[in-house]
Specification:
The complex is a heterodimer of chains A (594) and B (238). Chain A has helices at 2-12, 48-51, 55-65, 80-89, 118-127, 169-185, 190-197, 277-281, 290-304, 322-332, 349-358, 375-381, 387-399, 418-435, 468-483, 495-505, 512-520, 534-543, 549-552, 573-585, and strands at residues 38-44, 70-76, 107-111, 143-147, 163-165, 203-204, 209-214, 217-223, 232-233, 261-264, 266-267, 286-287, 308-312, 339-341, 365-371, 404-411, 444-451, 488-492, 567-568. Chain A has 594 residues and is α/β, with parallel strands linked by helices. Chain B has helices spanning 19-33, 76-83, 106-109, 129-141, 195-200; strands at residues 2-10, 49-51, 60-70, 91-98, 110-119, 146-150, 156-160, 165-170, 180-186, 216-227, 230-233. In chain B, strands 1, 2, 3, 4, 5, 8, 9, 10 and 11 form a nine-stranded mixed beta sheet that branches. Helices cover 19% and strands 34% of the residues of chain B. Chain B folds into two domains: 2-103, Alpha-Beta Plaits; 110-236. With 238 residues, chain B is an alpha+beta fold. The chains are: A alpha/beta (594), B alpha+beta (238).
Chain lengths: 594, 238
């Protein structure tokens, strides 16, 4: 597209990291638009460096582009400097591979991974010159679809989307695209096409349902077409060894957050931590075979030239005989001097041994997530590690020469008291006392404390988020506790950020005008500290007279209609209730006043 | 151990990646090529690969140099034939030769670089040929051009960069083509200045403001080394 090309040339010299917008990276796929039946742009509503680190994006790029009759190109959010110049020069948002405007595609598919990227989604639709709301789009406009973990409660965004894919999309997305081609060839209208697509498993068309409210309380969804399914059930891949995996992923020109090859060992997690949405929506656990893993890893390194491969999954040390898998992997890749890494380590001696096996050189720091500092609270959240496990594992690590630990905790978990929060400080003090003084170097601790966000499709979905004053108070307990502790680097999550996450995580369709308003007021990149402006959000709440706090701070009841009731993640409500009741039944002496 | 010195051209759009990204790009291409790289000793062995002089973002180049060590014998032609298919189209290998292991490093050899600056066709700026010439003359007539530089301790200090501007000349005979001028700038451990900075110092019409580097397409044409007090193109080093 020469028009875009010449405008782009004058813009690229003036923006930060222009390589974000080049799109002809190694292994990128360039197909002739007139030679395929359907064209899709995969849109990631954050910066290139973040989006290109997302494994789901690479999987879908492979799954669609491996079919000769389809093409998929990528597009990311324009950074604020780029957006300004694009608007100034009248340059529409374009897909990287062909530099064609997004409006030229049949489908634009957003990867929805994080609630605070919602304003970026609106900005990208707007920069493409496509109407924001689904009901404003006409026959010529692309279908705007969404998927990813936020699609498990997409209701706050449903007015902007024509269709959502619920679950793992690598099989259902190409099926849906093929069906779209077939329906288009029948010359059906957009509305009829969408209605017929709702017959596919895992496909949710929001416009086929209308929420019914009674005095502001959600009572249920009314079907607007008899063909719409009552419930949409998530789609999961049955056998990882039988679906295509990206062995030649795009290799970015610039450094991304995860700048390495990735092989997925298994999907799902056998642990069942009660706060963790991924642990429930990715059930059941499905493993890739050892042979497949080794062969895929070899192909990945040959096609990319990466010097590191990550053995990825939600809890990688749970792969059966992972130690022998790592040694087999090292042997298979010995010629190319590739390092292996594990992204998620369990806090036990076995995992420390794995880390030793992986890092032969300098041992800087190991990362663990105890999440809570008292045994009682860990039982509540079903993170079943004992204090003894923690100290044995860290002791082994210190003996093996690790010089520091990065520890992740949460505050605001259900039943938490001030004592549980103080215990975070005590635990870190004890770790430093036990392991700090030995040897020449002192032990470095990096302690990161997030605020609990209740998520849909978890046993804690009914739980309120801790209120703002209480969050600030507990953060203060931590700040003053760590102030006098040398060698500890303490960081915490912004209270307003976590609040907005909670609002959208459990939000309903009434939030759409709020998101639009916040975006019009200038909200962008809300997940980035340097861009986040809560004043604008507060202004939007006020202008729309919306009580956002009722989404985050209210305890939902078991019998009420949850906004995501019609979306089934594969785990029954009875199981969530049982798990929730079990968590509240945990009662050890420390607990008081609950 | 085998040492190969090679030259390459960098075209658009690869001008938009940084020096560190260029290094990573070459290392991944070398890894894909399966040529027998030699690694450094120590805790964290690295492939022995260097580029002569970092290329600033946005600048294309006609004759850049790099060096790589191999554990086994490699024919210089084989190096190009095997590596080129692993590189993006915008990076073109133009020559390669075996180099004596005792030869000084590329980084220590390079002491100047020549640049060609062309006014972009997409730019809205118009400059008269004579005025550009006059601005360049005024620049060269200065004894001192103080540039704000960061020191190692994160402080700032002023450095006189005028001595680093060796030569400037307008390339156009008339204004029928896009306006173009060339620069020969010192670089390396003895101090240097970037072409973008020099462009930013030019004020063709007094009072109308300085030129902006982003309106000019800059191409690094050649790298030079010092021999008997004069600058010689690196390609002449035998």
């Amino acid at each position: 597209m020469p028009a875009i090309e010449s405008k782009l040339a004058s813009i690229l010299a003036r923006v930060q990291k222009p390589a974000r917008y080049l799109g002809n990276e190694w292994n990128s796929v360039h197909k002739d638009h007139s030679g395929v039946a359907v064209r899709m742009a995969l849109a990631f509503p954050d910066l290139y460096e973040i989006g290109m680190s997302n494994q789901g994006l690479k999987i879908l790029y492979e799954s669609v582009n491996s079919r000769p009759e389809m093409l998929m190109e990528r597009v990311f959010a324009a950074a604020t400097d780029m957006e300004e110049l694009m608007r100034q020069h009248g340059l529409p948002l374009f897909a990287l591979e062909s530099q064609r405007p997004l409006a030229d595609f049949d489908v634009i598919g957003f990867s929805l991974q994080y609630e605070l990227s919602y304003t970026n989604v609106l900005n990208m639709i707007d920069l493409s010159g496509i109407p924001l709301y689904s009901d404003q789009r006409n026959e010529q406009d692309p279908l705007v679809i969404g998927g990813g973990s936020c699609a498990y409660n997409p209701e706050p965004m449903s007015a902007f989307f024509d269709l959502f894919v619920l679950g793992e999309a690598e099989e259902v997305l190409p099926e849906m695209l093929a069906e779209l081609v077939r329906l288009k060839s029948e010359n059906l209208e957009r509305k009829e096409i969408l209605t017929r697509l709702s017959a596919l498993e895992g496909i949710y068309i929001p416009a086929l349902y209308q929420p019914v409210y009674d005095k502001g309380v959600l009572k249920g969804l009314k079907k607007l077409d008899s063909r719409a399914p009552v419930q949409i059930i998530k789609k999961a891949v049955a056998d990882l060894d039988r679906v295509s995996y990206p062995t030649a992923p795009v290799v970015p020109y610039i450094q991304t957050v995860h700048d390495r090859a990735v092989i997925e060992l298994f999907r799902g997690c056998g642990k069942g931590c009660r706060f963790c949405q991924a642990g429930f929506i990715f059930r059941p656990v499905r493993r890739r075979s050892r042979q497949n893993i080794i062969e895929t890893a070899k192909a990945l390194i040959a096609a990319t030239g990466y010097d590191e491969i990550s053995l990825s999954s939600l809890s990688s040390s749970d792969y059966p005989q992972i130690d022998t898998l790592i040694s087999d992997m090292k042997e298979a890749l010995s010629a190319s001097r590739v390092r292996c890494s594990l992204p998620s380590l369990r806090l036990d001696s076995y995992s420390v041994k794995l880390a030793d096996q992986l890092h032969q050189g300098r041992r800087s720091s190991l990362t663990f997530a105890p999440e809570a500092a008292t045994e009682r609270l860990r039982l509540v959240i079903n993170k079943n590690i004992s204090e003894e496990d923690i100290f044995t594992a860290l002791g082994d690590a210190v003996k093996a020469g690790w010089q520091g630990f990065k520890l992740y905790f949460m505050i605001g978990l259900p039943t938490e008291t001030d004592q549980d929060v103080e215990a975070i400080v005590t635990l870190c003090r004890d770790i430093r006392r036990n392991f700090g003084q030995k040897g020449k170097r002192s032990l470095n601790l990096s302690v990161s404390v997030a605020t609990f966000v209740p998520k849909a499709h978890t046993p804690f979905q009914w739980e309120p988020q801790l209120s703002r004053p209480e969050v600030l108070e507990r953060q203060q307990i931590l700040r003053s506790g760590f102030k006098t502790m040398p060698g500890v680097n303490f960081s915490w999550h912004d209270v307003e950020t976590s609040f907005l996450e909670a609002v959208f995580a459990r939000g309903d369709r009434q939030l759409a005008p709020l998101i639009e308003r916040a975006w019009r007021l200038g909200c962008r990149f809300d997940g980035w500290t340097e861009h986040f402006n809560f004043q604008l959000w507060r202004q939007a709440f006020q202008e729309l007279d919306l009580n956002a706090e009722s989404y985050a701070y209210r305890r939902f009841s078991y019998d009420e209609q949850l906004p995501w009731n019609h979306l089934h993640c594969g785990v029954n409500k009875e199981i969530f209730i049982r798990e929730h009741r079990q968590s509240l039944a945990v009662d050890l002496p420390q607990r008081s006043g609950q | 151990m085998m040492r190969i010195r090679f030259s390459f051209e960098r075209k658009m759009p690869l001008a938009y990646i940084s020096h560190l990204d260029m290094l990573r790009l070459f290392l991944r291409a070398l890894s894909r090529s399966r040529l027998p790289l030699a690694y450094s000793q120590g805790y964290n062995p690295h492939p022995r690969f260097t580029l002569a002089l970092p290329l600033p973002l946005g600048i294309t180049a006609g004759e850049e140099y790099g060096e790589v060590f191999f554990a086994d014998k490699i024919m210089p032609d084989q190096f190009i034939n095997v590596l080129q298919p692993q590189l993006p189209e915008a990076l073109v290998l133009t020559g390669s030769a075996a180099v004596d292991p005792e030869e000084p490093s590329l980084a220590s050899l390079v002491s100047a670089a020549s640049y060609c600056c062309t006014l972009k066709s997409s730019s809205s700026v118009t400059v008269k040929l004579e005025l550009l010439q006059a601005a360049l003359d005024r620049l060269m007539a200065k004894e001192e051009i103080l540039a704000l530089r960061k020191t190692k301790k994160n402080k700032t200090t002023y450095t006189n960069v005028r001595p680093y501007i060796i030569e400037v000349s307008v390339k156009n005979a008339d204004q029928s083509k896009l306006l173009e001028f060339s620069l020969l700038l010192q670089t390396g451990s003895q101090g240097g200045v970037s072409p973008g900075y020099v462009i930013g110092q030019l004020e063709p019409e007094p009072g109308a403001g300085n030129l902006h580097a982003y309106d000019w397409q800059i191409r690094r044409e050649r790298l030079y080394f010092k021999q008997n007090g004069s600058m010689q193109p690196l390609s002449e080093r035998r």
